Amino acid sequence: MGKVLTIHGGVPLKGKVTVRGAKNLVPKAMVAALLGDCPSVLRNVPEIKDVAVVTSLLKIHGVTVTKDEATGDLTMDPSGTKTATSNEIDTHAGDSRIPILFCGPLLHSLGEALIPNLGGCKIGDRPIDFHLDVLRHFGAEIDKAGPFGTTIRAPHGLTGAKISLPYPSVGATEQVLLTAVRAKGTTELENAAVEPEILDLISLLQKMGALITVGRDRVIRVTGVEKLKGYNHKALPDRNEAASWASAALVTKGDIFVEGAIQRNLTSFLHTYRQIGGEFEVTDDGIRFFHPGGELKPLILETDVHPGFMTDWQQPLVVALTQASGVSIIHETVYENRFGFTTALVEMGARVQLHSECLGAIPCRFGQRNFKHSAVITGPTPLTGADIDIPDLRGGFSHLIAALAAEGTSHVTGIELINRGYEKFMEKLTGLGARVEMNELASSL
């Protein structure tokens, strides 16, 4: 039976939260442990579902995973790496999209990888074929015929390649890095993603002995090595969670100190946050985000790959824009279906219109394709409590902060999705003064 979160809104969130290792790095760093010939230690690991999923996947592949209960650090020993059975793999079908990144490391270690049918948030097209095409460049052979997923083999080993991505995809860039570091020869990746999480993964791989350079022109060059050692690495803090709590402070007219937030990884967000009327103070330990009083201001914004305004920041900020005085326009250029979460906001009283046209300075790849990827938000509008079912991770958190700001009571289901990327969020909410209750979902709901 699922759970329902009851939220009594209208209370400003005030206090401190701590963000730990980034969801968009930690699971990939765990996968990288398969590449080493000795144990790796990953520090600053959050307690989120994606970490539990990758821990289980590592274990069924023979990796010994030990958690330090005092610190949360993970030690991963790949010395017993083995091929998982189809039944073991099938238990993880639909859990997340992380398993596809096991391919390169497993092909180097075992010559074969079996990948389950993938899951993840339904926010747009993130096809497995993108990853499979990358692996084919290295010489992998793909067999999709199996009932439990996709079998990938490298009977002749993997060889470096020249790859040009049609879009600077984070997942495809990670796939190239995790495959190229032990492939024979040199790999050159053009139009690579260069997000802070990508650069932190590169730092980790360099600690293992990888030869990697990053050019200013989004070109990453990797010279493969025969073997890598383990790493000892502290994951960079989660900038997406930090931005989510910043938006929560703005929407609820609160004041939240986000311990662990790093200014240099939030530059474009901080610029936009101040434009809309929010304020922040940077310290060595984190960033204080608060509503300084007065009206919030509308804006025109386009999401983009780093160093642009990140797509994961857009959804919580949209909730804040429902309270801005005037008309705001958001052009989403990264995921074509990211505005699905606004249906619940409209039910709560927000005025949001979706459009298939590119309402931005530059037409994007979703233009003329009937994807409603632009939003016009008119405010301010009072929000009222509602019954909400969470559609995805970031949209779900956005629903939560809308309910926290709304007058009245909201009932939120699908709350388990939040556990994928937000550590101890119930504990953090109550610590900030939110009036919330978690109960078992009644059969009548």
Automatic annotation (TrEMBL):
<feature type="modified residue" description="2-(S-cysteinyl)pyruvic acid O-phosphothioketal">
    <location>
        <position position="121"/>
    </location>
</feature>
<keyword id="KW-0808">Transferase</keyword>
<keyword id="KW-0133">Cell shape</keyword>
<dbReference type="InterPro" id="IPR050068">
    <property type="entry name" value="MurA_subfamily"/>
</dbReference>
<keyword id="KW-0573">Peptidoglycan synthesis</keyword>
<keyword id="KW-0963">Cytoplasm</keyword>
<protein>
    <recommendedName>
        <fullName>UDP-N-acetylglucosamine 1-carboxyvinyltransferase</fullName>
        <ecNumber>2.5.1.7</ecNumber>
    </recommendedName>
</protein>
<dbReference type="InterPro" id="IPR005750">
    <property type="entry name" value="UDP_GlcNAc_COvinyl_MurA"/>
</dbReference>
<comment type="function">
    <text>Cell wall formation. Adds enolpyruvyl to UDP-N-acetylglucosamine.</text>
</comment>
<keyword id="KW-0131">Cell cycle</keyword>
<feature type="active site" description="Proton donor">
    <location>
        <position position="121"/>
    </location>
</feature>
<feature type="binding site">
    <location>
        <begin position="23"/>
        <end position="24"/>
    </location>
    <ligand>
        <name>phosphoenolpyruvate</name>
    </ligand>
</feature>
<comment type="pathway">
    <text>Cell wall biogenesis; peptidoglycan biosynthesis.</text>
</comment>
<dbReference type="InterPro" id="IPR001986">
    <property type="entry name" value="Enolpyruvate_Tfrase_dom"/>
</dbReference>
<feature type="binding site">
    <location>
        <position position="97"/>
    </location>
    <ligand>
        <name>UDP-N-acetyl-alpha-D-glucosamine</name>
    </ligand>
</feature>
<feature type="domain" description="Enolpyruvate transferase">
    <location>
        <begin position="9"/>
        <end position="429"/>
    </location>
</feature>
<dbReference type="InterPro" id="IPR036968">
    <property type="entry name" value="Enolpyruvate_Tfrase_sf"/>
</dbReference>
<keyword id="KW-0132">Cell division</keyword>
<comment type="similarity">
    <text>Belongs to the EPSP synthase family. MurA subfamily.</text>
</comment>
<dbReference type="InterPro" id="IPR013792">
    <property type="entry name" value="RNA3'P_cycl/enolpyr_Trfase_a/b"/>
</dbReference>
<feature type="binding site">
    <location>
        <position position="334"/>
    </location>
    <ligand>
        <name>UDP-N-acetyl-alpha-D-glucosamine</name>
    </ligand>
</feature>
<feature type="binding site">
    <location>
        <position position="312"/>
    </location>
    <ligand>
        <name>UDP-N-acetyl-alpha-D-glucosamine</name>
    </ligand>
</feature>
<keyword id="KW-0670">Pyruvate</keyword>
<keyword id="KW-0961">Cell wall biogenesis/degradation</keyword>
<dbReference type="Pfam" id="PF00275">
    <property type="entry name" value="EPSP_synthase"/>
</dbReference>
